[in-house]
Amino acid sequence: MAGGKEPIEVRFRLFDGTDIGPTKYDPSTTVSSLKEFILARWPQDKDIAPKTVNDLKLINAGRILENNRTLAESHVPVGEIPGGVITMHVVVRPPQVDKNSGIADNFSPLFIPFS
């Protein structure tokens, strides 16, 4: 591993309590790469699903992790928990509302209101 650091074992906890992982990562792995991993393995049976990495927020120890930072730079406890698994919480950004129609971009209305 880079710099002789031990890999970090991470599990991602989704909003409904289910997990993705655990999987081991090098401390030089970026938060953006972790989000890409989550997107690729997002359970298909979920009603709420992110479309891009920008729809996801990763939270560790009460802090939102920045996309361009590595696990080590984000102060994830590298090597402090021997054999332990770090749980990061995944938050999905709510769908954006189309300002013209007032309808969320992933919402299919059952009726169309009269103008």
Quickly list its features:
single chain, prenylation, five-stranded mixed sheet, Ubiquitin-like (UB roll), mainly beta, 1 helix, MUB, 115 residues
Characterise this structure.
With 115 residues, this protein is mainly beta. The protein has a single domain, classed as Roll (Ubiquitin-like (UB roll)), CATH 3.10.20. The chain is 9% helix and 24% strand. The protein has 1 helix and 5 strands, in the order E-E-H-E-E-E. It has a 5-stranded mixed sheet, with helices on one face. A hairpin with a 5-residue loop joins strand 1 (8-13) and strand 2 (19-25). It is globular. The chain starts with 7 loop residues before the first strand and ends in a 23-residue tail after the last strand. 15% of the residues are buried.
Strand order, main sheet: write it out.
Answer: 2-1-5-3-4
What is the CATH H-level superfamily? Phosphatidylinositol 3-kinase Catalytic Subunit, Chain A, domain 1
- Number of helices, counting only DSSP H or I runs of 4 residues or more: 1
- Helical coverage, percent range: under 10%
Number of strands: 5
Fraction of residues in β-strands: 15-25%
CATH class: Alpha Beta
- Count structural domains: 1
Order of helices and strands: EEHEEE
Annotated CATH architecture: Roll
Shape descriptor reads globular
Contiguous low-pLDDT stretches (5 residues minimum) are 106-115
- Average pLDDT confidence is 80
Largest sheet: 5 strands, mixed
CATH-defined topology: Ubiquitin-like (UB roll)
Distance between the termini: 62 Å
Rounded to an integer in angstroms, the radius of gyration calculated over CA atoms is 17 Å
